[in-house]
Amino acid sequence: MKLCIRLTASLVFLGAVILLAAFKDPLFDEKADANKQVQAAIAQATREGKNIILDFGANWCGDCHFLDAQMEKPELAGLIKANYVVVDIDVGKFDKNLDLAEKYHVPLSKGIPALAVLDSHGKLLYSQEHGEFESARRMKFEDFKTFFEQWKPKK
């Protein structure tokens, strides 16, 4: 019985260490001026003929980290790099950059991560309305790939 309790405690501790290690690098710059980031992304996208992904999320959000991990997989990373400029927008504890979420019709009340897609000139092409990425960890890799394929610029 004592061995079982020790083993359980060890596994819980190990799980916590792994979880903290996964979140060690912040995804979202909590001090960034998101409005300036979006304007810079529009200028870059216009020059490069790419669309823009606005990724609304927070460093404490597990699904945001999962989405980021999917986006960094080689097959998806190449697709994203060739077709998009990505802007990570920190929402804090749903108390930051709410003006941008409203401007791009992203209902943060449905959860994060939340994505919007803009064309190369900043025109809104898509905003998630129903929290489609809120449970990113339950999505399949193919779902992410399909999304990014669907919204890449027409060349």
Largest sheet, if any? 4 strands, mixed
Average of pLDDT: 89
Count of helical stretches: 6
Work out the strand percent: 5-15%
Counted beta strands: 4
Descriptive labels:
155 residues, alpha+beta, Glutaredoxin, four-stranded mixed β-sheet, 6 helices, globular
Describe the structure.
The chain is an alpha+beta fold and 155 residues long. It has a single domain, classed as Glutaredoxin. Helices cover 46% and strands 15% of the residues. The chain has six helices and four strands. A four-stranded mixed beta sheet has the order 2-1-3-4. A hairpin with a 5-residue loop joins strand 3 and strand 4. The longest helix is centred in the first third of the chain and has 21 residues. It is globular, with a radius of gyration of 18 Å.
Give a short summary of the structure.
This protein is α+β, with helices and mostly antiparallel strands and 155 residues long. The chain has six helices and four strands, in the order ααβααβαββα. Strands 2-1-3-4 form a four-stranded mixed β-sheet.
